[in-house]
Every structure is written in structure tokens, then in C-alpha cells.
Fold this sequence. Notes:
CATH architecture of chain B: Alpha-Beta Barrel
Bound molecules: flavin mononucleotide, FE2/S2 (inorganic) cluster
Oligomer: heterodimer
Number of helices of chain B: 10
CATH class of the largest domain in chain A: Alpha Beta
Shape of chain B: globular
Order of helices and strands of chain A: EEEHEEEHEEHEHEEHEHEEEHEHEE
Distance between the termini of chain B: 40 Å
CATH class of chain B: Alpha Beta
Mean pLDDT of chain A: 96
Amino acid sequence: MQRNSNHPTICKIEKVVxxxxxxxxxxxxxxxLSNVLPGQFAMVWIPGVNELPMSVMVSEEKGKAAxxxxxxxxxxxxxxxxxxxxxxxxxxxxxxxxxxxxxxxxLVGGGTGLVPLMRLLTGIKPSDDVTLIMGAKTQSEVFxxxxxxxxxxxxxxQVIVATEDGSYGQSGLxxxxxxxxxxxxxxxxxxxxxxxxxxxxxxxxxxxxxxxxQASLERMMKCGVGICGSCCVNDDLVCKDGTIFDGKHLLSKxxxxxxxxxxxxxxxxx
Amino acid sequence: xxxxKVNSSLCTFIGxxxxxxxxxxxxxxxxxxxxxxxxxxxxxxxxxxTKSLSKEPWEGYxxxxxxxxxxxxxxxxxxxxxxxxxxxAKMIESNKDVPIIVSLVGSIEDDFEFxxxxxxxTKVLAYELNLSCPHVAKVGLExxxxxxxxxxxxxxxxxxxxxxxxxxxxxxTTNYLDTVDAACKAGIDAITAINTLRAMAIDVETKRPIxxxxxxxxxxxxIKPIAVRCVYEISSQHKIPIIGCGxxxxxxxxxxxxxxxxxxxxxxxAVGDNWIQVFDEINKGILQYMxxxxxxxxxxxxxxxxxx
Lengths: 270, 308
Ligand SMILES: Cc1cc2nc3c(=O)[nH]c(=O)nc-3n(C[C@H](O)[C@H](O)[C@H](O)COP(=O)(O)O)c2cc1C
Ligand code: FES
């Protein structure tokens, strides 16, 4: 069958790995998605339930790709519950990718926002000095720490975990850790993905210190291709112009860090 | 500034509605934010049509709601999700520059009257009555398929506003020309033709319909010849200004609709295929065609194919 990147292609889930009690990684074979750029996403159809935008996760095996899902609403829970051998539909890849700079890099991620950052780690140079700050509510929700260390094996690097309840790593928010770190260190680039209020703070801290920063935004999506308009942030369409935007650009947008649209397209505060 | 932005040859009239350029953003495409409208207007569109608005906010159907079909074209059943006319009117209140056509969807004449009241303090170029959405019960095509109801709605709307009113028709279960006829008799100012065509796609691996609503509407290049035929038929039977819509993705498609009888055209799915520069590309192509063929105004070309 000929592939049409805007039409769902059916893939069978081949492996399911529990990352935490609420987060799972599903692996499947797909040549196209196995080669996406860091930050690109796919629209994922859970037959009979819904279709969701999902950032494409790294898979170690050639020709394979993965999604890492937190069970949350009806649709994400249904995807989380897909078993080995069951089908999902994928279309894409969609969206732009991170502009990967060289030198001292800082990555700040929370929850499943770590997914595009993991993919970014596969695109860096061995000479880069990388700091990754990953956030979670509590110890049992920390994931990808070992994997990040493994991906960064050949680099000068540090992986810092921050938990909100202080049960593991540093106590507090990733943005507090970042703020401290940036008192003495200037990074050549900062990349962030996670809850928007977190990203908004990361962008502000980085911009104040005159550091290049990019954030990957998340919005309600229907088409993924710039037709429906449901993903707009001011005059940008996240699926088409993003999902990755420069911090400077984002700070000029009144909706970034403040509001998002619901299913009816009405602006709601974060 | 775009070269085609100030070129007076591209100016066109849909009855009393004057457009600087004949390319309009179709309803339901990127249509929920004033900031986006501004961007599309500055990218070259002569006007923008809003998402069809209802009295109350609607969430629409669950995904999948939009995807492309194999071969070409797009299938959608968004379910008319929209913020509702009152919220939307507030949102575009601050509009100064953009020629906005407000699309409305409802079941009875009172719905439309209520919605038009919401826009009393807003700059609106025209209203477009959606009589043709093919996948939501009791509105759209189900209304358009009832010429008597259409007549009542158009009469009510015309008596509640001085702003021009356009009826958007599509292919339903009754002859769409009867709907056009009813709208014309009730005093409509222009017709947009056509909307998406009822269609569906079934995934052979999972053996299920892909759209959550199962049935939706087909748009894009596959429907163009049908839309051209409709514009040609309407313009052959009525002296009513027509806006052509359906599968337009390049300047020659636009010219084809104009030759069939359209005074302006709407672009929808091509935004998904070619992004928003499609407006400027089509404007430029129309201008070049006019220069090459010795036309100085759009209206000189409207309906030329009918003389054969
Ligand atoms: C995703 C999508 C949503 C649409 N929503 C509306 C709508 O709310 N109201 C309406 O009158 N037409 C709607 N349409 C129909 C378009 O305005 C247009 O009539 C149709 O797509 C044919 O034009 P095209 O081939 O250029 O897309 C929608 C079309 C699409 C693809
Ligand atoms: S998801 Fe439809 S325009 Fe972005």
C-alpha cells in the first residue's frame, strides 16, 4: 500500500515498557518516524477512541520509533493501554525541529516533555557540554534519568533531577535549579519542553541572561497540518510554525504562558 | 509589502461587496482567531470567512476529524466546533483592517437573528449563511435541503441587517438549484458554491471508519470539477453574484471558476497543501493571466465560458 503522510498508516505495537506507574513507552516499526528530526510529532490514532499529537521518542533499534505517554485524559489513557500486537494509526511527521547549537547546552524538561529532549540528545556533537535538568512531582515519577546518562556517555555532562516533594535529587522546581545554575554559568543554548508555565519561566530566565532559548509548545490539535486553526497561539499555528519557537518570538506573544484554547476554541487561562 | 496588494486590476465586486483581491479564505480554515485573520489578510487574501458560528459554543466531534485521502483531497468531520457567536463577536470587536465575512450556522430563523445581533458593534464585511455543512444534524445541509426554510431564514436575516448576506450552498438530497432559487427569491445578495461533499474512508487493517463521525465531507482538488459545474449552472440560471469554492489550489483553478461565472473565489484545503502563501501565488498568477490576455478588470472575465 502506498503511504500518504497525511493519512493514518497502521502500525502494530511491538513493545511496551513501563517508565513509571503512570508513564509508558510504546515501540513500533516505521521507517519514516524512526528518522524524524528532534521535536517533530505525529498524529496518533487510537482506533475507536481518538487521535492525539505525540512527540516521537527515540528507539535504539533501526527502523523503529516510539511514543512515551502519560495516562491522563480519555485519549491518552486509551493510548497508554494499547497492548503488544494491537494497532495504532500514525500520520506525519509534522512540525519543525530544534535548532541545535554547539558548545554548552542546557536542556530543561518536565514529565513527557522529556521526549523531544531525548531525541535532541541523539543529535548533539561529542564535543558539546550538556546539562539536563529533569523535573518530576515525586521519586516514583522520575524517568529517563538512566537513559539520558547513557545517551550522553561520550559527552561532558550532568543530569540533574529535581522533585517537587524533595523525595529524590534536588528538592524544588526545575526552574529553581536552572536559576541557580545560571547565576554562574552562561549556556550557548537552552532547550525546554514541558508544562507551559515552566517553559515560560525557562524562557524568561534564559532571555534575561541573554542566552539563546527554544521551547516546544503543546496545543489542542485536530489536523496537524495548518487547516483547522485549533492550535493557534496569537498568529502562529503550533502544528505548522512550531511546535518549536525561539524564546524571543514567544515573549512577544500575549498568549504564551497565559492562555490556551479549549475544544470550542475559547481562550482559557493556564 | 506584497506586489499584488495594491494592484487595482485584482479588485473585484461581489454585488455591493468590494474586495481588493479576489482570493478569500474559506470558512472553517484557520478561522478562529483575529490574529490569524490579520496574518492571512497580510499574506494576500482579499477577505477571510470565519469558522461557522452557532448560538452556543460547540466542542465538535472527537478526533480523527481531519486527514487526507489517498490520491488527493481531504476528508473532515470537525462537527462545527466553534466558540459561539457571542464570544466570537467580542474577540473580533477590535478589528480595524481585515475584511471579515462572518459565517453563521443555525436551525431556524431566530438562531440567525440572535447571532447577527451579537455583531452590531463589529466591523463585518458580509454574513455567509452556512446552508451546506454535510455532517452535523439539524443545521447546514439539512437546512439547505429545505427551500421553504431557506426562504424564511434569508428573509429574516435580510430584515435584521444592512450588511450584505451570502448563502453558501452544497450538494444535498434536494436539487441545490432549488435552494439557490429560494435564497434569490428571498433577497440574498450572493451565493457561495460549494461546500464539502458527503464522503467517508474505511481503514482496511482495522476495518473501521476513520472519522469519529464516520461520515464527513470531501474537499480539495477531487471536488473541483463538480464545483465548477455548480458555479456554471447557477450563473446560467440567475443574475446573482457568485463566490466559487471547491478544490482551488492554483491560479488557473481560480480563473476557471471566474470563467464559469464567479466574481471571487474561496480557498480552503489548499492552505493545508501549500500553506498561506497560496493566496499571493494565486493573486500573482491571476494578474499574469490578465496581462497576457488583455484583461484590465476581473469582471471582464466573469462568466466568459457561458457564451459557448
Ligand atoms: C476542516 C474543514 C472545516 C470546514 N468548516 C466549514 C465551516 O465551518 N463552514 C463552512 O461553511 N464550510 C466549512 N468547510 C468547507 C470549506 O469552507 C469549503 O467549502 C470546502 O472545503 C471546499 O473548498 P476547498 O476544496 O478549497 O477546501 C470546512 C472545510 C474543511 C476542510
Ligand atoms: S492542528 Fe489544525 S491548524 Fe494546527
